[in-house]
Amino acid sequence: MLYSMELKSRGTAENPANRFEKLHYGTSAEAIDEEACAPTTEFFKDTSKSVVSTNDSPDLGFIASVNPYRGCEHGCIYCYARPSHEYLGFSAGLDFESKIMVKEDAPALLRKELMSPKWEPKVVVLSGNTDCYQPIERKLRLTRRCLEVLVEFRNPVAVITKNALVIRDLDLLGELARFRAASVAVSVTTLDDGLRLKMEPRASSPERRLETIRTLADAGIPVTVMTAPIIPGLNDHEIPRVLEAASKAGATSAGYVMVRLAHGLGPLFEDWLERNFPDRKEKVLHKIRDMRGGKMNDSRFGVRQRGEGVLAKEIADLFRLSCRKLGLNKRDYELSAASFRRPGEQIRLFG
């Protein structure tokens, strides 16, 4: 264990069995509730030998990503990354937000990757899985150090976050933006801070996120607002208001993703609804199943991000018409790798 700190709130009060483990230590619901009031977050060293992950998913907008942390203190109940914690022997519940793996060597590993002649310059996404600006980043600064490497190589980066801490690194993002090599996507799921506190207990408030968009835009950094995830019956009615607020703050593009409840995430989400919105629980679950062919999740490429059916089309139309009205997504902003360089290459060339 590297560090520990006390947190006041959590996204879930459950720690379900790991689907890969045959044995599971059970705790009574009363004990879990009592422990969940102020649980301790533990941080462990991740000894991964590489830091750049690649994917060939046709419905993702990137190929390469870097995640300095596995697990996330934000505690977002809906997070699609929760089941990935089970590959580490942890639970997708409380473990995901209280047992965080830290890639201390991430900056050095990233630099080694970019120095390799095999590296073909391409956009690197920071936060392809968990948020690279979760609270511990304020202390460890791994994301900032990764950005310093990307600036050194002028390799394009796209950041995805829901934490205002990204503003701390305005200098580095601004430097890359000079070469059309930086953009930031800020997730704004709701403008209701009461809902945010229940749904995303450790993330920045909606007001702070809008301020973040404004600050980034004023610095000349292209900003996308992500209304993600859309949870029908809970926050889908906010789509026009969220997009309007983000547009006024300076966002020039927008995107959305429908809530995805793969593996054990479904029962966790159901329990959360029962605890926080018992009057709306069945309505929300019915709407989700309506878009997922009667199931809680559909992992097929092409539909997993958007859903299908009448309700999914209504949400897609609402999003599209709202963007058109606000002038969002009028033009594509493609990041460029044209200015990529490897330190020392010119010296060797003329040596």
Write a structural description.
Residues 3-7, 23-36 and 347-351 have low confidence and may be disordered. The longest helix has 17 residues, at 310-326. Helices cover 35% and strands 14% of the residues. Helix 3 packs parallel to helix 5 (142-153) and helix 5 (142-153) runs parallel beside helix 6. The chain is globular. The protein is built from 13 helices and eleven strands. The strands form two sheets. It has a seven-stranded mixed beta sheet. A four-stranded mixed beta sheet has the order 1-2-6-5. Helix 9 links the parallel strand 10 (223-230) and strand 11. The protein has 351 residues and is of the alpha/beta class. The chain has helices at residues 29-36, 94-98, 106-115, 137-140, 142-153, 170-177, 193-199, 206-218, 239-249, 265-276, 281-291, 310-326, 345-350; strands at residues 3-6, 40-45, 52-54, 64-66, 69-70, 99-102, 124-126, 157-161, 182-187, 223-230, 253-258.
